[in-house]
Design brief:
By secondary structure, the protein is of the alpha/beta class. The chain has 2 domains: 30 residues; 355 residues, Glycosidases (TIM Barrel, Alpha-Beta Barrel), CATH 3.20.20.80.
Length: 434
Amino acid sequence: MNHLNKRAWIIIAAAAVIAVLMAIIIIFAPTGSTSAPVMLTVSPDGGGKKPETTVTTGEASVVTYGTNSYTVPQSLTESEMRAVWVPYMSLYGLTKEGIDKIVSDCRNIGANAIIFHVRPFGDAVYDSEFFPWSHLLTGTQGADPGYDPLEYVIEKAHENGMELHAWINPLRISLSGGTPSPLSADNPYTKWRTDSDPSNDSWVVDYNGGKYYNPAVPEVRRLIIDGMVEIAAKYNVDGIHWDDYFYPAEDSSFGDGAQYSAYTASGGTASLIEWRTENINTLIRESYSRIKATDSSCIFGISPAGNIQNCLNAGADVYKWCSSGGYIDYICPQIYWTFESKVAPFDARCREWKAMVTNDDIDFYVGLALYKAGSDADGGQWKRSTNIIARQIEYLRSDAVRADGFMLYSYEYISGSQTFSEMENLIALLAANE
């Protein structure tokens, strides 16, 4: 046997030994999953979700939705953001079992992130030093639910290879219908309005039946930011998320007249809307700075309304946020129209927003109106077509936009008869790209 043949036989023998060892590892290795994989089955008659044992191949689960089957990898983290908003309406009486279901459902449609509502009404769906426990959990604001939902949902999301972003409404305390009511004794609104100090009464504002924090007040901004820093410090969240609620009024009917008068009396020359816009910008800059100082890996982003003029009227300076550093890590406008819309065609509105993002460090996501699927919205367009969301995602991925991902509004609509066909087409698209 010459030198080359001897070397070849050595290589072949070594390869055979490696192959045997790999076979032994595959046979006896654990799956790596901390929770049993489930199969999502949804019937078109609105039968809902039925957890079953999936077909599992290696580290992947084969999932079906209607007539489509696709593979969900053990870890779903990838370059494209595929998020689902879980709003406060989904959190009433929330239990650990309910959280398990939310995470499983989101994972099984191919999502890789959950945007979880943790402060919808100046409250907390977590153990907070600054805000009372949310009424959503027990029916009474301030009542301890006996566990920490944020801590638990983070654990479960990460076990399933998904990101968890804590979603807050920075200014809203209650809706015009009185939700939540009553406010707890330890709610900042209650404390400021019932203490012996009249100077802090205007730190909160009653407007159009609702209650709001007044962002013109430095102490109020500090409270809002302290609450976000608390989340970033205590919890292993991947991000903190704001939606589209800023100033609820465009005119002087919102009760911040005392602060604006003090500003002009000191020589300020900005108009009311310019002054309000700077209050919001200051809040966002300081939020970003302190979140990053607490946890540099925690991203901070905002999902404003898709109508740019409405944003500007509410004090949301989206042009500045998208072009400057130190405000946000991503923008996610809620572009809730169709391609055929006469008011705001989806493609044109996407290009308009994308053109605003001139800072290369800012990611561009788009919020999609899954809740409209199968409904009479927009003159029946969502009933006449069942692949609107899928086509929108294809457009976001195209060279015309090159978006970094999308978010679906909302969790309640990822199953059920109304959105079944739309979801089936959406999942087929996602499956084709796995």
